[in-house]
Specification:
There is one protein chain. This protein is of the alpha/beta class. It contains 15 helices and twelve strands. It has three domains: 76 residues, PLP-dependent transferase-like; 250 residues, Aspartate Aminotransferase, domain 2, CATH 3.40.640.10; 119 residues, Aspartate Aminotransferase, domain 1. Helix 6 crosses helix 7. It is globular and about 75 Å long. The N and C termini lie far apart (68 Å). The structure holds pyridoxal-5'-phosphate. Pyridoxal-5'-phosphate binds next to helix 6.
């Protein structure tokens, strides 16, 4: 069994095995004709269940053969131009090279004595991101597992900096379009069930700052404490960016922590043409970025950035076995002092490789391309009488629904759109997302693939209309 350990004696087997895996993925990528095969859980579950995990196959090649049937053949492929569903990006090759390196070396970024140069590379990328945000010298941050964790840590810092320790009194203000991790975080942080105040959005799905101002006043008048105001820079559904300067002003006036959730919109930090859309972000106390969304990085790659690095002390604990107090005096850079995680992947290497190969402008141009594509797509759908489209895009999502030519009930239209999404997924021809606007069922394109074309979008719209029409036709037959 020692022959499976990666070491000096097995370097050749390592090379062969990894190449074997790479070869199969490469073959799959070059032969996929659809983003999905339409496989169902019932189709796949018996094969996965039938694997006897106590009967090993002995070599990677055999295990990869088996894996093709269990996973690779039927995976959902984000690189396909007709994968238009969630905030998943096609990944850039330099980052995948980084991924292969980081998992083989297997550094852990909690302490210097488990990572050495890895810690310095992560720190440079945190500084680089802070520079792009416009933070000053005292800024800091740490890589995290994702936007949800970044938001949790930001709100932990906000809670610790709040003017009361009475958790029942704390309130968080975020738009009704903000990410659900804000609510989850409030729960994890022990706040009350009504701690998160949802501020209505305007027609463009941006937080209404007049209402935010009124709610902050009301909070004060009731003797409650505004713990944090969360602005979203790129809402998950609409890509809308809350008015950051006005929100910064209101948060400052009320002494609330100002957090900007830029999990999606962070790609603008590298954009050669659209950086101004984030103006005001430099006034935040903390910022969430998901490089695994708009920087074309493999999952996971995310960070929490803070304007005042000293606030990260709220995540600092010392353990004799890991990061004893004296290591601070000895100025040993232990990233665990800033993190909610202990053992932690060297995800930063993927972004490092990306910037060293492509440069920030290269990444930003890719994100610009998908934003341009969304603008084209909006025109396409707006001109199509079969569809209703909401909100001209700021980033790269389009929310729309099929509306039949003949009059039918709103509930039937909802069902037709739901059916069309499911039927499309089952066909594997394309994958789109669904969401609600008001109480109505909508569909969504999330565009993160510069290889997607207007023609792809037009073709998918035809497919959706076909499925919806078929559904409405059939239900009419049944009704009559
Ligand atoms: C995706 C997203 C998150 C959560 O990020 P994960 O990496 O999925 O945990 C948070 N906020 C916004 C606005 C997002 O779009």
């Amino acid at each position: 069994m020692r022959s499976h350990l990666l070491n000096d004696a097995t370097a050749e087997q390592y090379r062969r095995s990894v190449n074997d895996g790479v070869e199969r993925v490469a073959r799959r990528l070059s032969t996929t004709t659809r983003p999905f095969t339409g496989v169902t859980p019932d189709d796949l579950a018996p094969a996965v269940a039938a694997v006897d995990l106590d009967q090993p196959l002995g070599d990677a090649s055999a295990a990869l053969d088996e894996l093709e049937g269990l996973y690779l053949d039927d995976a959902v492929y984000f690189h396909h131009p007709r994968y238009l569903a969630h905030l998943n990006c096609p990944v850039v090759i330099p980052a995948v090279v980084g991924e292969a390196v980081l998992s083989a070396v297997n550094s852990s970024l909690d302490t210097w004595d488990q990572s050495a140069g890895g810690t310095l590379i992560e720190r440079r990328l945190i500084d680089w991101t802070n520079g792009r945000i416009g933070f000053g010298e005292s800024a800091d941050g740490v890589f995290t597992s994702g936007g949800s964790q970044s938001n949790l840590q930001a709100l932990l810092l906000a809670r610790e900096e709040a003017k009361t320790a009475d958790l029942a009194k704390l309130r968080i203000f975020s738009s009704e379009c903000s990410h659900f991790s804000v609510q989850k975080s409030a729960k994890l942080l022990g706040l009350g069930a009504d701690a998160v105040v949802a501020i209505p959005s305007d027609r463009d799905k941006r937080m209404q700052t007049v209402i935010l101002a009124a709610e902050l006043e009301r909070c004060a008048a009731q003797g409650l404490v505004p713990m944090a105001v969360v602005a979203t820079a790129g809402t998950t559904d609409f890509g809308s960016i809350d008015p950051l300067p006005q929100i910064a002003e209101l948060a400052a006036r009320h002494g609330a922590w100002f957090h900007v959730d830029a999990a999606y919109g962070c790609g603008l930090l590298a954009s050669p043409t659209r950086r101004h859309l984030l103006d005001g972000i430099e006034r935040a106390d903390s910022v969430t970025v998901d490089y695994h969304k708009s920087f074309f990085q493999p999952v996971s790659s995310s960070a929490l950035l803070v304007r005042d690095g000293a606030t990260l002390r709220h995540a600092t604990y010392h353990a004799d076995y890991l990061n004893p107090r004296r290591t601070v005096e000895e100025r040993i850079p232990n990233q665990v002092d800033k993190s909610l995680q202990t053992t932690r992947r060297f995800d930063a290497l993927k972004l490092w490789m990306t910037l060293r190969v492509m440069g920030a402008q290269g990444v930003g141009e890719l994100f610009d391309e998908v934003c341009d594509l969304a603008a084209e797509g909006w025109k396409l759908i707006a001109a199509d009488p079969r569809y209703d489209v909401v909100v001209e895009p700021t980033l790269s999502t389009l929310v729309f629904r099929y509306i039949p030519a003949s009059v039918t009930s709103p509930a039937a239209i909802d069902r037709a759109n739901l059916y069309a999404r499911k039927a499309l997924f089952a066909s594997g021809e394309a994958v789109v997302a669904g969401t609600k606007v008001g109480s109505r069922q909508y569909l969504k394109f999330t565009l993160l693939n510069p290889e997607t074309t207007v023609a792809d979008m037009a073709a998918v719209l035809d497919l959706i209309a076909g499925h919806a029409e078929q559904y409405l036709g059939e239900t009419l037959v049944h009704a009559s």
